[in-house]
Task: structure prediction
Amino acid sequence: MKASVFYKHGPPEVLEYTDVDDPVVSNNEVLVKVKACSINHLDLWIRHGRTGYSEIPFPHILGCDISGIIEDSNGFTDFNEGDEVIVSPGIGCGKCKYCSQGNDNFCKQYSIIGGWDRKGGYAEFASVPSQNIIPKPKNLSFEESASLPLTFLTAWNMLVKRAQIKTGENVLIVGGSSGVGSAAIQIAKLFNCYVFATAGTEDKLNKMKNLGADFVINHTSNDFGEIVRENTNRNGADIVFEHVGSATWSKSIDSLTHGGRLITCGTTTGSETDFDIRLLYRRQLSLMGSFMGSKGDLLHLLKFIDSGKLKPVLGNTFPLSEASKAHELIENRQHFGKVVLKV
Ligand SMILES: [Zn+2]
Result:
């Protein structure tokens, strides 16, 4: 089959479009003919060989957000060959305390399709565990469907599960133009919150408004912490949604009201920061981390996708052969919403 693979860590150019062996379909797996696969920052971190992702088996095939068609159901009767499906990206052990509680994303053996230890969807075919198969939303294209699992699951877990968002709260989405940011704006509006959102260009600010953001801020030319305080009676945001890291961290902390919660899932601009611990207890802040989300939550949020209340934001599409160009676009922050590979 054709696939976009890489044989060493490095810049986008290490991704090569070439012929590789078809995946081996093991007992508990089914073969999916990939129609689309979206790109996540996780893919870029693995390609770079960031800490935690530096020892992966090569050649590697990235891609955790897959939509496609069942090619070989491998004897499973829950679905038929030809069914249109999406793939839940996370895999827990199914046996530990966390998995038993439905918190599979807390599992110590948790892995991700196309992650550090298993091949993914930058390919014509992907073999995935049968329990990860979910029917494709009928109201979405393959490209839109591939845009939803990881970003919506991550944003849902951050706002709903971890930060426990409440109706009417002031929520700041830092980096609201990204895939996870554009999902977060919509989820916060689902809870009737007042949503501040930041981005780096006028075009992105307008697009965030169209998604429902109430107050948009250009974070390249403004102190967004001060602007959020100015517009909340000097209080600040109840929740700050972070995934940018070093470049925005101190302003994100400044944006929080007393008793506010900051939730983060990533550090696209770097992971190092200075932090005055006194702020934490004087202002009684909560700092929270989040990683992926449970399959149960993905199934739950799909109801809002089906009803049209949440919708994946499809930014750019590239043919699979141009995966390196697609990675470059994301690294240069030229995208809005999700960047998707069409297979
Ligand atoms: Zn487990």
Notes: The mean pLDDT is 96.
